[in-house]
Design brief:
With about 220 residues, the protein is α+β, with helices and mostly antiparallel strands. The protein contains 4 helices and 13 strands.
């Protein structure tokens, strides 16, 4: 899927190309930005923006490739490890799909140059693959954020859409969580108690109650 949009910026124009591909049997999802002017101002420097405003043309190219696995197994292992470490705060997370993101830009007749980080976060909207859609399910994106892998929360108000604020274009992973997997929330922050801990805690409480009742039962007998 390839989408090309021309945005007027001052007296100049910026052509934004979004290409989505799928390496799995599932079709590539629709991916777009929430605010294209915001993307332009995040990807170009102020000096470059001034040139565009004065009538120059520019180009932004984005490629998003969805896959079930990564060719780079070290990176896949790293991302799965990050997801597991985040579970202590968020609860159980399930792997959805990987999305490899690349971006590049050009100004006037210059060659395309790669973009890794952008000056400010931009909203990226991703249609959730239908086979992952389920009632009472939450979706997140494990992605680079300020130089570290992080769990980006969904800010979308649209059904079946994952919207995240990103500041880098790299390999990311869509993950999901059902209500039964969700961690308990306390004072607006994420707090997770593993089920094993809850089970052991419950057994300790029951043992304490049994000992207390047994002691109360014995006291009258000893007094008599």
């Amino acid at each position: 899927m390839n989408e090309v949009t021309q945005i007027a910026y001052g007296e100049g124009t910026v052509t934004i190309s979004l290409q989505t591909e799928s390496l799995s049997e599932v079709s590539a999802p629709n991916i777009r930005f929430g605010d294209y002017t915001e993307v332009i101002e995040s990807c170009f420097t102020q000096k470059e923006l001034n040139v565009i405003q004065n009538g120059e043309v520019a180009e932004l190219d984005f490629v998003f490739v969805m896959s079930d696995t990564l060719d780079n197994k070290a990176k896949e292992k790293e991302m799965n490890s990050t997801m597991e470490s985040l579970e202590s705060s968020y609860g159980t997370l399930h792997e959805g799909v990987f999305i490899d993101m690349t971006a590049s830009k050009s100004l006037a007749d210059s060659e395309l140059s790669d973009i890794s980080y952008i000056s400010s976060a931009s909203e990226l909207l991703i249609d959730i693959p239908l086979y992952l859609v389920k009632e009472d399910r939450s979706y997140y994106l494990v992605s680079r954020n300020m130089g570290d892998d992080a769990l980006l929360e969904n800010v979308s108000t649209e059904a079946n859409t994952l919207a995240v604020e990103i500041n880098t274009f790299s390999t990311s992973m869509m993950v999901f969580q059902d209500n039964s997997d969700r961690a308990a929330e306390s004072l607006g922050s994420h707090f997770y108690i593993p089920s094993k801990v809850l089970l052991i805690g419950g057994m300790v409480i029951l043992a304490g109650l049994w000992l207390g009742l047994d002691k109360l039962h014995r006291v009258p007998q000893e007094q008599s």
